[in-house]
Amino acid sequence: MAIDPLLSSTGEISRLLEIMSRLRDPETGCPWDVEQDFATIAPYTIEEAYEVADAIERGEMNELEGELGDLLLQVVFHAQMGSETGHFDFESITRSISDKMIDRHPHVFGDESRDKSAEQQTRDWEKIKAAERAGKDQGGALDGVAVGLPALLRAVKLQKRAARVGFDWPDISQVLDKVVEETQELAEARDTLSQAEVEEEFGDLLFVMANVARHMNVDPEAALRAANGKFTRRFEQIEARLAEDGRRPEDSTLEEMDSIWNTVKEAEKRAQK
């Protein structure tokens, strides 16, 4: 008789693994779960990671617990599918990451000194990772930068890798000059080039902006999330102000909404002082 995972007393991780095994059972499991594969689950994995980041950014610790559980479920889902295909299982995944953490922290688990800055530890970490890539026949400087990363994050990682081998502007002023150049090229493309060429120029501009972020130690993803939040907050204030008169944005004018926006903006600045 199968163990009811809801009554399992073997520990919560074992309980979760048993639940996923039951869900994936071809005969008695959930039809939706049984039909999934790595490719169909990957988008959910990415989505859950973003929801974890969102809960952290909003400071919602109660939500964070649940979101971390959802993210853990994704790992368990992939582990179950890996076990079914004979590629890996949850135990091999945890063993692999445990071994990696020990290898990458010789100043904690080995005989190296802990008496060094976080910056030096980061450099040492990168050296270890470079050696690992060399062991995997990833000889190119850009090898191993995941294609599936968010585009801005991947741009920064590509630029960091290139910078390590000397392919980088030494001064941010040159990067800012490149922003001006790419902006001008985009403006020219708008009037003379095809849509595909416009998109190419726009991509070039975003790539340079990611480089600006790197030189200024700015996380471009976090900065854009903050800008999105600011826009949402201010636009909702426009809606609220108009609602006081029984109106909606479509009942207003751009000039009026822009005026409200500036009022909200100034109020926020005063509140921050």
UniProtKB/TrEMBL annotation:
Residue ranges of domain NTP pyrophosphohydrolase MazG-like in the record: 36-109, 175-235
UniProt lineage: Bacteria, Pseudomonadati, Pseudomonadota, Alphaproteobacteria, Rhodobacterales
Enzyme Commission designation: 3.6.1.8
Keyword Hydrolase assigned: yes
Entry keyword annotation includes Mitochondrion: no
Coiled coil: 172-199
Reactions accelerated catalytically: ATP + H2O = AMP + diphosphate + H(+)
InterPro entries according to UniProt: MazG-like_dom, NTP-PPase_MazG-like_C, NTP-PPase_MazG-like_N, NTP_PyrPHydrolase_MazG
GO MF entries: ATP diphosphatase activity
Protein name: Nucleoside triphosphate pyrophosphohydrolase
The organism's place on the tree of life at top rank: Bacteria
Name of the gene this protein is made from: mazG
UniProt xrefs under SUPFAM superfamilies: all-alpha NTP pyrophosphatases
Keywords: Coiled coil, Hydrolase
Annotated PANTHER family: NUCLEOSIDE TRIPHOSPHATE PYROPHOSPHOHYDROLASE
NCBIfam families: mazG (TIGR00444), PRK09562.1 (NF007113)
Similarity field: Belongs to the nucleoside triphosphate pyrophosphohydrolase family.
Any single GO BP term: dGTP catabolic process
